[in-house]
Design goal:
The chain has 174 residues and is an all-alpha fold. It folds into 2 domains: 96 residues, Rna Polymerase Sigma Factor, Chain: A; 61 residues, Arc Repressor Mutant, subunit A (Orthogonal Bundle), CATH 1.10.10.10. It has 8 helices and no strands. The longest helix is centred in the N-terminal third of the chain and has 23 residues.
Length: 174
């Protein structure tokens, strides 16, 4: 499949080409597995999540719009949402992406590295809240329950941490 773009693979998947799905799986299953393992921490759950993500790709390939997100971003979004559902106990078979689900733009690699660095630089308490909410998929109410902090405190600390991170990303620093 040399020379075939990811967009072409997804177009072929939309036309029910199983070989294209196998090729896309070879390209992205290891990456999605890393995302799912980070969130779910259980290898079997993570593997099921990745499999469900590719089932969604098969079922909804025609919804992919490369002007809104890269293939990788689209796949990660599907996998991330499925992992959040698993964490919350919903375990939905499918989770189609609506038009409003697509990110405005593809994340920049440098930006992703900077975000990870900014999370690592947060005060330990704020980092814990961000990781619980964004990497583990807990709602703010669940984060409050898990940490024993009042919901208002959790909301304001998450909002303030995200605001500081946004400022640093936009070049304003803290």
């Amino acid at each position: 499949m040399e020379g075939v773009t990811e967009v072409e693979l997804i177009q072929r998947i939309a036309n029910r080409d199983e070989d294209a799905l196998v090729e896309l799986h070879k390209l992205y299953a290891p990456y999605l597995m890393a995302v799912a393992r980070r969130m779910l921490r259980d290898a079997d759950e993570a593997q099921q999540c990745v499999q469900d993500a590719f089932v969604n790709v098969w079922n909804y390939a025609e919804r992919f719009d490369d002007s809104k997100a890269s293939c990788k971003t689209w796949l990660v979004t599907i996998c991330h949402r499925l992992a959040i559902n698993r964490l919350r106990g919903l375990k939905l078979d499918t989770m189609p992406l609506a038009e409003w689900d697509a990110p405005d733009r593809q994340p920049d690699h440098v930006e992703r590295v900077m975000v990870r660095g900014l999370v690592d630089e947060l005060e330990p308490g704020d980092r814990e809240l961000i990781e619980l909410a964004y990497y583990r998929g807990y709602s703010q109410s669940q984060v409050a329950e898990l940490t024993g902090k009042p919901l208002g405190t959790v909301k304001s600390r998450i909002r303030n941490a995200l605001s500081r991170m946004r400022g640093a990303l936009e070049g304003g620093g803290e």
